[in-house]
Amino acid sequence: MNHVKTAMLIAGMTALFMGVGFLIGGGRGMAVAFAIAAAMNLFSYWNADKMVLRMHHAREVDGASAPEYHRIVAELAARAGLPMPRVYVIENDQPNAFATGRNPQNAAVAATTGLLQRLTPEEVAGVMAHELAHVQNRDTLTMTVTATLAGAISMLGNFAFFLGGSRDSNNPLGGIGVLLAMIVAPFAAMIVQMAISRTREYSADRRGAEICGNPMWLASALAKIANAAGRTVNIDAERNPATAHMFIINPLNGQRMDGLFSTHPDTQNRIDALAAMAGEMGASAVTASPRAAAAPAATAARPGPWSRAGRAAKPRKGPWG
């Protein structure tokens, strides 16, 4: 079913791209836009994950360079029955994370240093389980390709004036078409991104909680991330806003409300849903609110091999190493 949804989404984004081409250059512009969109779809399928990781200056790590972080991902992937994804770290103070890749066999997960420094190993497990849920649900291809096409559509809309200013552009709507392309294209691309992220985050939250075994690990992590993300500027995300919907929490400052222009559901609503799930599972409830100055660490109702419970105490710098 997800394959059908992905195909429909890519077809819709391609049609939107062609529509912008028509507004700018008429039939010829639409034909050119179709050719560009077809090439981008093919390129995005194979390379969009690498592009997104490069945009955010992610570096790959392994069991030697980031032992604890890498082990957390490995053990969660095993619990979920997934192949081991590539693991990346992003040098950024804003706590956040995302997953990418065209399928589970070619997936990658990335976490910022801000997330790894601020969260407990249990909370890191909750976040990475959420990202692995996106991989398992095959959301990553849809989200990554959409980020690429949405960025291209927005860019085409921004340059509509220059592309459509020629008299021989065959634009049947003239200056009105160019103006519509400049206004409608970025807005439409943003709406598509919002629809994708907002409907899939709740599903990934629930499946991620099942993978890690305790919904409150993720709930506590979301509270901490939301509290810090709004006060920390993510420069790479601000430069590439088309990728915002891929992150577990909106990385763009000032867009946390659960309204029309939010790329993510309201964090408190997500925490409430996880708390309800914890009650269903019998896990220890932890009060966690993104509005709190500091969220309490989640307790492990079902300690996993990534938990500190049962491990010999030893000095450590953080859950990434």
TrEMBL record:
Keyword hit for Zinc: yes
A Pfam family matched in the record: Peptidase_M48
GO-annotated biological processes: proteolysis
Top-level taxon: Bacteria
Gene assigned in the entry: htpX
Segments for region (Disordered): 292-321
Composition skew (Basic residues), residue ranges: 311-321
GO molecular function: metalloendopeptidase activity; zinc ion binding
Upper classification of the organism: Bacteria, Pseudomonadati, Pseudomonadota, Alphaproteobacteria, Hyphomicrobiales
Cofactor(s) the protein needs: Zn(2+)
Protein family membership: Belongs to the peptidase M48B family.
Subcellular localization: Cell membrane
Keyword tRNA-binding assigned: no
Peptidase M48 domain sequence ranges: 66-277
Record-given protein name: Protease HtpX homolog
Cofactor remark from the record: Binds 1 zinc ion per subunit.
Topology term for the membrane: Multi-pass membrane protein
TM stretches of this protein: 7-24, 30-48, 141-163, 175-196
Species in which this protein is naturally found: Aureimonas phyllosphaerae
